[in-house]
Amino acid sequence: MASVVVIVGTQWGDEGKGKVVDLYAEEADIIARFQGGNNAGHTLVVNGEQTILHVIPSGILHDNKTCIVGNGVVVDPKVLIEEIDSLKRRGFFPINTKLYISENAHIIMPYHRRLDSARESRKGSKKVGTTGRGIGPCYEDKIARVGIRLCDLIDDEIFREKLKTNVEEKNFFLTDFFKEEPVDEQAIYDEYRRYADRLRPYAADTSIIINREMEKGRKILFEGAQGCHLDIDHGTFPFVTSSNTVAGNACCGAGVGPTKINSVVGICKAYTTRVGGGPFVTELTDDIGKRIQETGKEFGATTGRKRRCGWLDMVLVRKSIRVSGVTGLAITKLDVLTGIEKLKICVGYKIDDKKFTESVPSNLKTLAMCQPVYEEMEGWVEDISNARKIEELPTNAGRYVERIEELGGIKVFLVSVGAGRDETITVKNPFG
Ligand code: GDP
Ligand code: IMO
Ligand code: MG
Hints:
The structure is a single chain. The chain is an alpha/beta fold. It has 3 domains: 3-105 and 202-264, 3-Layer(aba) Sandwich (Adenylosuccinate Synthetase, Chain A, domain 1), CATH 3.40.440; 106-199, Adenylosuccinate Synthetase, subunit A, domain 2 (Orthogonal Bundle); 268-426, Adenylosuccinate Synthetase, subunit A, domain 3 (Adenylosuccinate Synthetase, Chain A, domain 3, Alpha-Beta Complex), CATH 3.90.170. The protein has helices spanning 17-25, 77-89, 110-123, 135-143, 150-153, 156-177, 185-199, 206-215, 249-254, 287-295, 314-324, 364-369, 395-408; strands at residues 4-9, 30-33, 42-46, 49-53, 66-69, 74-75, 98-102, 106-107, 203-204, 220-223, 263-269, 272-274, 308-310, 312-313, 328-332, 342-351, 354-356, 371-378, 412-416, 424-426. The strands form 5 sheets. Strands 9-7-5-2-10-1-11-15-19-20 form a 10-stranded mixed sheet, with helices on both faces. Strands 14, 16, 17 and 18 form a 4-stranded mixed sheet that branches. Strands 3-4 form a two-stranded antiparallel ribbon. A hairpin with a 2-residue loop joins strand 3 and strand 4. Helix 3 (110-123) packs across helix 4 (135-143) and helix 3 packs parallel to helix 6 (156-177). The protein is globular, with a radius of gyration of 22 Å. The termini are close together.
């Protein structure tokens, strides 16, 4: 019986991972984030009340769980502390649920945010459209082996020394290269000392916690952030985030072996969205795109930016299934397509007469030349938000789901027909 499940986005993020993780968390013992940071915005709607999580795993609303922020996550301590405080204030941090932060997780510093925005401004029209949260610069410092981890932050001596070295270098970039104001080392020290005191009780060797629980046969849920096509290696580089978002990174980002993963659920919106810059073959700039944006309330959960919308692109989804070893799909926001007369699914790309269905060209000039090859399907007008079984969907909605299964060569585990926890059709339980 499978007991370790990884949840990943199969598009450009915001597929509804938060909703699905919250739903599966009911059955899980441990819910762990393994990459990304507060660039993520995961929305949960429980009893009509909305909670948006940026750092804390989406299992937090359930009692008796262990929530883990793994070593692969970059942590903005201010955001994390605010999130903890806000959940507690609202009575949404159940008393028997524990939160641990990996002592190896890297800490986002004020100079990371400053460098993020300075770099974006300099790029002008070529900017990535980052969330401005300092994610890229923080991961850069990790790879450059100069970053500050949680275990460094909570050790005063180490923190002071590392901060000094980093501020010296970052201020050189900020003032000499970007012609901006420097950051103030003492002010950062004072601010981050307070954060250290707040976060010390949560710091732990989270790999040990997870592996111990695995040995006891407990159920573990790994919550990916972003989506496959924002992956630093497999996404539409450079219009990507700075971490590996694919399922394999659950192992590196949480400290577990690949042999332990039993199932990978790929979250796939019934259409496609993207926030920020970068190629988008099936983007709709017409009234249908506007309608999907409005009906789907497609605004960024982190930055509030309007999300670009387009038809479902199965070339992207197929690639995600391949690189993440997805075992089942969760189709979300099917209800948003209700009332659109003719639906389109992109089944391949073409450049002149050459058609391809498997690969997404890496060369951005080639990708920009790609035209979508569409298959048209009849839509439905019936309200589907009350459907709780596949058989309760109107024929054409059922066909749409079936076609995704055929084109993806994979089974659908779940169909989401509304933002609420209960607005869900469960076909197969990924825990077995
Ligand atoms: P995530 O980043 O993948 O967790 O997704 P976001 O939370 O950023 O965006 C998904 C949005 O869609 C949130 O506002 C969810 O509440 C909402 N949502 C999730 N599933 C459904 C669904 O099936 N139907 C509708 N209408 N909204 C949904
Ligand atoms: P969730 O987990 C959608 C996008 C940004 C930008 C690019 C790089 O909610 O699905 P970054 O700040 O990470 O350096 O920005 O990645 N991006 C997301 N888009 N959902 C997300 O997270 C995202 N996290 C980052 O818009 O294009
Ligand atoms: Mg989101």
